[in-house]
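Support request, please re-run this one:
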Amino acid sequence: MADRSAPSCHLRLEWVYGYRGHQCRNNLYYTAAKEIVYFVAGVGVVYSPREHRQKFYLGHQDDIISLALHPERVLVATGQVGKEPYICVWDSYTVQTVSVLKDVHTHGIACLAFDLDGQRLVSVGLDSKNTVCVWDWRKGKLLSMAPGHTDRIFDISWDLYQPNKLVSCGVKHIKFWSLCGNSLTPKRGVFGKTGDLQTILCLACARDEVTYSGALNGDIYVWKGINLVRTIQGAHAAGIFSMNACEEGFATGGRDGCVRLWDLNFKPITVIDLRETDQGYKGLSVRSVCWRGDHILVGTQDSEIFEIVVHERNKPFLIMQGHCEGELWALAVHPTKPLAMTGSDDRSVRIWSLIDHALIARCNMEEPIRCAAVSTDGIHLALGMKDGSFTVLRVRDMTEVVHIKDRKEAIHELKYSPDGNFLAVGSNDSSVDIYGVVQRYKKVGECIGSLSFITHMDWSSDSKYLQTNDGNGKRLFYRMPGGKEVTNKEELKGIQWASWTCVSGLEVNGIWPKYSDINDINSVDANFIGQVMVTADDYGIVKLFRYPCLRKGAKFKKYLGHSAHVTNVRWSHDHQWVVSIGGADHSVFQWKFVPDRKLKDTLHIAPQESLVDSNSDESDSDQSDVPELDSEIEQETQITYRRQVYKEDLPQLKEQCKEKRKSAASKRRERAPGNSIRLHFVHGYRGYDCRSNLFYTQTGEIVYHVAAVGVVYNRQQNTQRFYLGHDDDILCLAIHPLKDYVATGQVGRDSSIHIWDTETIKPLSVLKGYHQYGVCAVDFSADGKRLASVGIDDNHTIVLWDWKKGEKLSAVRGSKDKIFVVKINPYMPDKLITVGIKHMKFWRRAGGGLIGRKGCIGALGRTDTMMCAVYGWTEEMAFSGTSTGDVCIWRDVFLIKTVKAHDGPVFSMHALEKGFVTGGKDGVVALWDDTFERCLKTYAIKRAALAPGSKGLLLEDNPSIRAISLGHGHILVGTKNGEILEVDKSGPITLLVQGHMEGEVWGLATHPHLPICATVSDDKTLRIWDLSPSHCMLAVRKLKKGGRCCCFSPDGKALAVGLNDGSFLIVNADTLEDLVSFQHRKDVISEIRFSPGAGKYLAVASCDNFVDIYNVMSSKRVGICKGASSYITHMDWDIRGKLLQVNTGAKEQLFFEAPRGKKQTIPSLEVEKIGWASWTSVLGSCCEGIWPIIGEVTDVTASCLTSDSKVLATGDDFGFVKLFRYPAKGKFGKFKRYVAHSTHVTNVRWTYDDSLLVTVGGADTSLMLWTYELEGHRDSRQCDSEESDLDSEEDGGYDSDVTRENEINYTIKALSTNIRPMFGIKPHLQQKEPTLDERQGVVRGSRPPVSRALPQPEKLQTNNVGKKKRPIEDLILELVFGYRGKDCRNNVHYLNDGADVIYHTASVGILYNVATGSQSFYQEHNDDILCLTVNQHPKFTNIVATGQETQQICQLQLLLSTCGMQ
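Re-run finished. Output below.
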């Protein structure tokens, strides 16, 4: 089998040629180390001019378009484009990420700026609102956000002389922002008559509220406050793109190619016209300037960077060049020298030295260039053009040899033959022309077999054959030089190819992902000697594969940097380097090839960190070369936790049933019952798909979870206490280092994590809003302040929380495959590890993001599936357990060694003071020393080792171990079979808790006169449980099939069990041995019932719509009940044993006579009169009220009536257990509702004396016991019931005032932010059509029909054209009459010991001085104020908060010394 593994050699980015000048500005700076920082494509570059060396920041996965330098000039912030763009703050010295800011912007990040002390960062998005965000970037926390402007914003800056002030500018606007609390409020700059309203491109802030800005016409506008005070006209001849402030003054750069220096008062110092210098050219446009001391950096539109020394300003030094705007496709390497040639749509061809990292020649052509080739002797350079022509130049002096145009469409590929005699030219019109080099490029042949454009070509080593690829992915062969197509396979067999650049063909099958478009991969080049090849694709990725690469979906190493399409890639002549070029980013990347033997020396170099999955070294191919997954893990990864309906959807669903609610609310409904139930004991432990979810608490109790319940179990008293805050399956549990708090995560649409106290069982914090579908792993940090969690969404998102504040600190996408465990480093709370399917990742926090590095396996093998992990005795050491039974030992991110620990997966691991304990699928607990050198002791979990005090029976020897914890001299073990065991260090094992295993539990029966019950489940076991205080499993029996129902005989001696294959058994209720068994049906037996009294008959209902009646004594079938149109769901006998009531899946209520099974029709009034031996039916008029409003969505699955016929208990598909009064007549009865099960409550039964209600929970596998508490037995505990689905008005109606206020609708007629429609023609430009009124001489106040404005006074209507306008004077608010009392309360307060009164009306906050009767006003609101409160804390005197309609809450502060409002 061909080797599909990734190659062991790798590439390292060595140099990037180019600079992003187009569509970007202000992106070039000196760092504190006098290095130059800028960006190109998706790479941040730090260039040292002294050493002529580049360092790269590779944390982005798309084009970078903005950059800001921290005031200390070491840290750099960069923003990228993309659907979910993010900002990286990174260190220009180490090029490592410091912080990631994400989850707010969309489309891209247009500008960035740090404030004066570098604590805050402002960013502007490219979304439709050009959102402005202010970040506390170290924490990764968003402080404030506001819509920026309706049009593009080009620049933003903090005012360095005033705290909390910013200025932004862009298309036809400038805005002055103030940041107050978390609200950003803008004021638009007033252009007035001083200057034209125009687009402002850049700005800089100065002292005394002065702002300088560069305009599109080349003027500089000077602002004082928000007003334009003067303009400096003609500062530049065209738009000013960049303005840079420094100690000496300001530097500006414009489209006219000039750089101007100004002093601190913006008086001109000097002009540098770059067009006039030696390196200059016509059309040079400056996009970025940076002035530092006597050096000036200039970045141009055409990707050059100049450095100017001020005293030799006419001799700028060119330090970087790249291709200009336009796609870059042409790439060729010199056959004998370290040179690369590129040609682009900018019409230039350039030659780069790979050793000196410099441009050594350039030549401009007439046409855009699409491909290039160098002749074998290195003398000629052929260029294919977009217009169908090709040109040959001499490499030596770039002079033209020949220019030929034989085609009309673009030339895509050219290749010289290895003997140097021919040039093949492939074009867009599907043909390849062959030219004779020696005959001055005369055409000597033509290949015309293709049906699509030619994409790639290769010559054979003997120059006799040519292979081509075309746009359809076809590979064709031609004989040279004539061009005849070769189809004979024998002839093709022995051909040796001189190069391999084709993307189709057997040798390169493996480069294609399994499902991909044939045009994704743009270029390939094989290195025959190193047996590797590189590819370039449309996703910006350069990949390294083995060569040949025969099987689809091979593994590779991948390298990011280019942003979008990588158009071409080539090995240098000596295979030392790979050169790749980017289409849209028109950059040239030079990668150093590091072969295997060198890798060993570089192992100490850690891999480049990644923020994105795609920096991973592994490929996205399938798992076919991974060892088979263990069956148990396979099963677990198949489990889906998605629900059709979540409990969170309830309010919405009820809302949809509004009509029903109204009709129900108007009817008088039965009250909820007075009696209640309380959860008393739960049998079960969730082990089958969870791990490490079992711990000792501080006080020696045991905490674990099952269904939606957190359980604290006291093993001495055999009692349990419950945390009932969750409403769906809990999937994970972690304990605080002090062992007093626990965190549990649940399933849910917006799933929550609860942190609760194991002593008081009270919640301390609930975290939600970040995980979809569920939380599968949680872990506390060693100091207990942080919590890490992993979701079960498609990306398995990892979130780090400050749980006390409920604040998300950082988040990142974890992995496409399932993650099983997250662990926070106990020594460094900013570091964590996650393990999962083929996944071992080491993360560190960076601001709002986490940066991950894959575990480095080196030569020790491949990434296995990891099931558990712990940190060791130092911060570097970590240990993980694999699915194959090994323990991997890691130092930092490197795998040091593996130790065989178990047969089969290692599911659980626990670190001790001195050593470790592990548990595996093999049912063995192993104790290790602190280096995993020696196994000190093993304990096998076997029945023989069970101690006499055990609460139940071990189902099988060596059960799979899922959780281990140590404490109190014991080892606590949780198994996949739902058992919790305590292992004494000396060997005996005590069973403490057990429940059913994976599979749904449906069958439940309570004994007719003893406190025991039986359950049967899809896990193929039948179990008998003791319901008395000893709470244990008395007996268990394995069945050949799973079962769905069971029933005790009336004397309690026999137990009937219906199985899923249509058979049923009757067994001895004590020993569970068979008495008799039958099989008449093929489908599931859904319900089974003995007739009352002597138990003469047994009714057996099945899912194939029949009920069979058997005579128990003679063991014969005596009747069949036919006539149901769907499967049977419930069945009850009457007291005489003569009548059967049956419910079906089609919601039919049917009656049959026993024992023959004749169908009867009984009117509903009669049904109520019949005495029933039991009532478990869910249909009929007696229980109409148990169906919820949203009955279409959820089914009531079970019911059971108390023996006094007063209370009906039900279980439904939402996981609710409810109590109703019986009979529950009329729709939507009131009830008490209890949550503990997660989704379906499949069965409910009262015990013989009604003292307990027993419920089973389908897939949550739990058996719950509830004590029945009569009315009056209410202690003060919080009642966990809810009265009803409906809040009906019959509990005493509202007072009329309250009703009216309740119905006030505050959605506003028109928001004051945009009262006017924002389109149409401005009034003074409209051509006036006299109205009828005007013709008749009537002047009206022209008012829109709905307006918040007063009618305008009539004299404003006269035409004022000839009169001189009087300046408008300001109005000052003097007095306000009124107070808002109609719908507000508690909104009048005394201040200053009663000297002042504060209240509100309309949108004004009013401070009324009692002595003088004067008012002062707070007028920052723009709509009705609805509430007001005063801060009572002595530290915050005179602070008032007011809230308005619409979206904002304002805080006001009153400075009463001046009695002015602030």
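Helices lie at 489-493, 596-599, 631-638, 650-656, 658-666, 1164-1169, 1296-1303, 1332-1335. Residues 1063 and 1078 are 6 Å apart (CA to CA).
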